[in-house]
Specification:
Layout: no helix or strand
Length: 65
């Protein structure tokens, strides 16, 4: 089967620019400085688990009569 590709036309939208008039008002602001205290969290140390070594059981030899 032969597939035909359809071409889509892209439509561009026109944007209208609006001009705004801005009035500037001067305001005096007083700045207050705030001091922040940082609390440090103590890191908890993780205890390492010791691996238990498994002891090998010795095989008992059977005595021949």
């Amino acid at each position: 089967m032969i597939r035909r590709r359809r071409r889509r036309r892209k439509r561009r939208r026109k944007r209208r620019r609006r001009r705004r008039r801005r009035r500037r008002r001067r305001r005096r602001r007083r700045r207050r400085r705030r001091r922040r205290r940082r609390r440090r969290r103590k890191k908890k140390k993780k205890k390492k688990q010791k691996k238990k070594k498994m002891k090998k059981k010795k095989k008992k030899k059977k005595k021949k009569d």
